[in-house]
C-alpha cells in the first residue's frame, strides 16, 4: 500500500515543509506546524474554475452601468468608492467589540430597506444574540435572512437557494470547509473557506462582506494571502473608550485607498458623522498650550484634527517620547528639529503627543502642526484659536509643500480659522479664492517661535 503523502503547514503563516519542524523557519513560531494531507488539500483547488476554460475578448464583456449597490449609509459607501461592487469581496477587519457586526448588520438593514434581500451568516453569535442587536438597531428583517452556520458548503448551499443580493459572513475565522484540514481559524481553513466563498460570490455576482479578526499586533488573523484574495480591505478602528469609530480602506480595487468614514457608536447603533471637522477639532475647550488643529488629508477629504503635545519635566535618565495616533519615529525627528532649530532645550523634558478622538495621522502634512504643538507646549503659550498650520518639515527645519494645499485652506476657512500657516512654496499658488483668511508663508521652523508671540 502506498504511503499517504503529507506536508506540514504552519498555522500562523502558511509555511509548508515536507517534514515536521519544531519551529517555523518563516515566522519563528514554536509548535505551529501541523500535518496536511496533500491529496485532500489539492481537491478543493481542482473544484474551482468558473470560466469553463474559455477566454473572452475584453471588448465583448458587458458591464452594467449600475454595477454598484448603494447602502444609503454614505460614510460606508464612500469608503467603498461609491457603493458595493457586484461580485466583489470586502474584508472588514477590526478589534473585538469595535462594532464590525453592528456596522454590517446596519448595512444589511439599509439594503433591505431598498428592497434587496440579504443573507447574514454568523458563526459567532446565536439567533437570539443577533435578534437582540437587530431589535436595538430597528432592523425590519423581512427579507434579511439570518443563518447561524460555520460550514462553508452549507452556507453556499443556502446562498444558492435564497439568491440574496448581498451576503455577510461574520467571521471568516469561524468557518470550516471539508476541503481543508485543521481547525477553524487555521491558515488552510481560512484560505480555503474564503476562496470557496469568494468564488461563489463572483459567479453569482453578489457582494460578499467578510468579517476578519485582528491579532494582538493589529494584523488580520490568518494568512496574509487573505488580503490578496479579496478586492477591498477595510479596517474599522477607534478607541473603545471613545464613541467615535473610523472606517478606513487600505486596499480597494474599485476606489481610492486611505478614504475614511466616520461614525459614532450610540445606544441604537452607529450614526454617521458627515461633518467630522466640527467633532475632531475640539475648539470649544478654549486656548490650551500644546494644542493645534490642522487640516488633515484623508482620502478625498480634509478633516480638521486636533494634535496635542504635553511637555513636562522628566524624572528619568532618558526622557520619554510617547506618541498616540502619530508615527513615533517621525515625532522623534520632529522634536529633535524643534530642539535644533527653534532654540529650545528638550533633553530634560518628557514629550507626549496625542491625536484627539482616536484618529490616526499618517501623512507628513501634520509636521508643521506637530512642531507648533511641541513649541507651544514647551513655552506654555497657547496657539491662537484662529490659527492653524500644515506643511512637511525637513531635517534642516525647512518647510516643504504638501498635497492639496487649496483644499486644506478651504476646509480651515470653512471651520472659521482665519490665520493659516502654509509652506512658503505653496503660498502664492494657493492664495486664490479665499476671502477673509490670512495666509502666512513659513519658510523655516526657526520663524515659528516668533509667530507664536
Ligand atoms: P459589535 O458590533 O458586537 O462588535 P464586533 O462585532 O466588532 O465585535 O459591537 C460591540 C459593542 O458595541 C458593544 O460593546 C456594544 C456596543 N453597541 C452600542 O454601543 N450600541 C449599539 O447599538 C450596539 C448594537 C452595540
Ligand atoms: Mg462581532
Give your account of this protein's structure.
By secondary structure, this protein is α/β, with parallel strands linked by helices. Helices cover 28% and strands 26% of the residues. The longest helix has 18 residues. The mean pLDDT is 87. Magnesium ion (MG) binds next to helix 3.
Count of individual helical segments:
13
Number of strands: 23
Overall morphology: globular
Measured as a percent range, the helix fraction is: 25-40%
Write a concise synopsis of the structure shown.
The chain has 453 residues and is α/β, with parallel strands linked by helices. 28% of the residues lie in helices and 26% in strands.
List the helices and strands and how they pair.
Elements: E1 6-10, E2 16-17, E3 33-37, H1 38-47, E4 68-69, H2 74-79, E5 84-85, E6 89-94, H3 100-113, E7 118-122, H4 127-137, E8 144-148, H5 152-162, E9 166-170, H6 187-204, E10 208-213, H7 225-229, E11 232-237, E12 244-252, E13 260-266, E14 269-272, H8 276-280, E15 291-298, E16 301-313, E17 321-324, H9 328-341, E18 349-355, H10 367-379, E19 387-389, E20 392-393, E21 399-400, H11 405-414, E22 419-423, H12 424-427, E23 438-442, H13 448-452
Parallel strand pairs: 6-10, 6-11, 7-8, 7-9, 9-10, 17-18, 19-22, 22-23
Antiparallel strand pairs: 1-2, 1-3, 4-5, 11-12, 12-13, 13-14, 15-16, 16-18, 20-21
Bound molecules: thymidine-5'-diphosphate (TYD) and magnesium ion.
The site of magnesium ion (MG) has 4 residues, from helix 3.
Please tag this protein with its features:
single chain, 453 residues, nine-stranded mixed β-sheet, four-stranded mixed β-sheet, 13 helices, binds magnesium ion
Amino acid at each position: 500500500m502506498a504511503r499517504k503523502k503529507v506536508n506540514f503547514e504552519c498555522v500562523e503563516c502558511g509555511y509548508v515543509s515536507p517534514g515536521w519542524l519544531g519551529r517555523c523557519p518563516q515566522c519563528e513560531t514554536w509548535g505551529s506546524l501541523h500535518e496536511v494531507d496533500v491529496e485532500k488539500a489539492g481537491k478543493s483547488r481542482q473544484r474551482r474554475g468558473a470560466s469553463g476554460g474559455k477566454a473572452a475578448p475584453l471588448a465583448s464583456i458587458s458591464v452594467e452601468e449600475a454595477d454598484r449597490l448603494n447602502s444609503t449609509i454614505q460614510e460606508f459607501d464612500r469608503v467603498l468608492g461609491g457603493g458595493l461592487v457586484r461580485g466583489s469581496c470586502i474584508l472588514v477587519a477590526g478589534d473585538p467589540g469595535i462594532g464590525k457586526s453592528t456596522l454590517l448588520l446596519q448595512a444589511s438593514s439599509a439594503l433591505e430597506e431598498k428592497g434587496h434581500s440579504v443573507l447574514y451568516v454568523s458563526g459567532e453569535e446565536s439567533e437570539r444574540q443577533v435578534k437582540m442587536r437587530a431589535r436595538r438597531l430597528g432592523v425590519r428583517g423581512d427579507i434579511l435572512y439570518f443563518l447561524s452556520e460555520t460550514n462553508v458548503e452549507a452556507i453556499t448551499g443556502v446562498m444558492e437557494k435564497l439568491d440574496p443580493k448581498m451576503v455577510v459572513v461574520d467571521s471568516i475565522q469561524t468557518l470550516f470547509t471539508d476541503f481543508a484540514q485543521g481547525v477553524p481559524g487555521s491558515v488552510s481553513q481560512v484560505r480555503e473557506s474564503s476562496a470557496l466563498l469568494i468564488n461563489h460570490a463572483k459567479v453569482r455576482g453578489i457582494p460578499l462582506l467578510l468579517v476578519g479578526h485582528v491579532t494582538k499586533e493589529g494584523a488580520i488573523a490568518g494568512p496574509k494571502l487573505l488580503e490578496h484574495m479579496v478586492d477591498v480591505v477595510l479596517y474599522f478602528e477607534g478607541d473603545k473608550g471613545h464613541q467615535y469609530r473610523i472606517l478606513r480602506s487600505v486596499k480597494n480595487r474599485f476606489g481610492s485607498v486611505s478614504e475614511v468614514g466616520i461614525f459614532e457608536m450610540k445606544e441604537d447603533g452607529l450614526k454617521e458623522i458627515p461633518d467630522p471637522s466640527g467633532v475632531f477639532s475640539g475648539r470649544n475647550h478654549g486656548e490650551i498650550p500644546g494644542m493645534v488643529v490642522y487640516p488633515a488629508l484623508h482620502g478625498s477629504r480634509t478633516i480638521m484634527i486636533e494634535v496635542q503635545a504635553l511637555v513636562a519635566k522628566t524624572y528619568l535618565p532618558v526622557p520619554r517620547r510617547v506618541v498616540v495616533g502619530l508615527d513615533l519615529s517621525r515625532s522623534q525627528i520632529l522634536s529633535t528639529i524643534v530642539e535644533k532649530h527653534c532654540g529650545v532645550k528638550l533633553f530634560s523634558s518628557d514629550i507626549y503627543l496625542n491625536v484627539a478622538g482616536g484618529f490616526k495621522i499618517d501623512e507628513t502634512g501634520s509636521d508643521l502642526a506637530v512642531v507648533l504643538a511641541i513649541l507651544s507646549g514647551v513655552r506654555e503659550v497657547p496657539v491662537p484659536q484662529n490659527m492653524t498650520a500644515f506643511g512637511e518639515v525637513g531635517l534642516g527645519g525647512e518647510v516643504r509643500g504638501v498635497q492639496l494645499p487649496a483644499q486644506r485652506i478651504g476646509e480651515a476657512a470653512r471651520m472659521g480659522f482665519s490665520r493659516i500657516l502654509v509652506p512658503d512654496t505653496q503660498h502664492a499658488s494657493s492664495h486664490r479664492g479665499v476671502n477673509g483668511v490670512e495666509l502666512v508663508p513659513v519658510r523655516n521652523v526657526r520663524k515659528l517661535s516668533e509667530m507664536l508671540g
